[in-house]
Amino acid sequence: MSVDVKKIGEQVEKESAVINKIRTEIHKVIVGQDELIDGLILALLCNNHVLIEGVPGLAKTLSVTTLARMIQASFSRIQFTPDLLPADVIGTLIYNPKSGDFTTKKGPIFANIILADEINRAPAKVQSALLEAMQERQVTIGDQSYPLEDPFLVMATQNPIEQEGTYPLPEAQVDRFMFKIRISYPQKADEHQILKRMARSKPATDVDRIITPYDVKRLRLLADEIYMDEKIEDYIVNLVEASRNPSAYKLDIGQYIRYGASPRASIFLALASKANALIEGRGYVTPQDVKTIAYNVLRHRIILTYEAEAEEKTTEDIIDQILKTVDVP
């Protein structure tokens, strides 16, 4: 097995230049926000969806559009509003009175990268239109199903639920996002740099198209080959199990957890840990890889009780206790 790990490590070393170039190119436009940028790259490598939450003005939309411009692939931006209809997202059948036939008009969901901007501004009927696309990677219009392009990623932004005019996303849809990334205000030095770069009538937002869908697929296949020891797999399962049965791990947090993480959490922790090892330039997964991505994978999958809210406990607090308590291999 060590020979395989060495071979994978050599491949990772060759590809690390591509990943560093992606980071460098995004940082031409985005100042700071390293966790967000790495999260977007990880989602790209895992061919999965990401939900970004933060107050307005933190470059959520700009980060996604910058990443999309770097890839030679199709891109759609859907601005979610309260009056949006499912047909505005997936498409609809158009009746032709001359021929008496119906023709299919495909919606903006038919692209490689979808920016679902302010996704929680639209009601549940619109959110339901995304469920099939995100999970099955196909869309049904009328009585016919159409496969979506590969790669297919939904990168959604949302304002905090506490803001006015927002709708809480259904749990079934939130669970389909691999990551939920929360971003906060920049550091003082970063904000000074943002001011210098963006305080002009036409800020520089151009980036080079440096990768193709083929490059993305190649990197994705390499991420799949990253070596994960069985002890790391056990560690991942234990972390997820601790969110469902905390008393078995001597955790006194059961009263705060209404529902633990779903099986998707185990799958996504494994996938994202491998991808994180890749962007860190390693051919094998360490426990630190799991810890690094644990918050983004678990924070929207652990549902808290009213008691937790009353005591102002957050999912981050719960995840922090689980990571500190579960034995590390």
UniProtKB/TrEMBL annotation:
GO terms for molecular function: ATP binding; ATP hydrolysis activity. Keywords: ATP-binding, Nucleotide-binding. InterPro entries: ATPase_AAA-3, CbbQ/NirQ/NorQ/GpvN, ChlI/MoxR_AAA_lid, P-loop_NTPase. Transmembrane segments: none annotated. SUPFAM superfamilies: P-loop containing nucleoside triphosphate hydrolases. Residues 255-322 form the ChlI/MoxR AAA lid domain. Residues 49-179 form the ATPase AAA-3 domain. Pfam families: AAA_3, AAA_lid_2. It comes from the Bacteria. Belongs to the MoxR family. This is ATPase. The lineage of its organism: Bacteria, Pseudomonadati, Thermodesulfobacteriota, Desulfobacteria, Desulfobacterales.
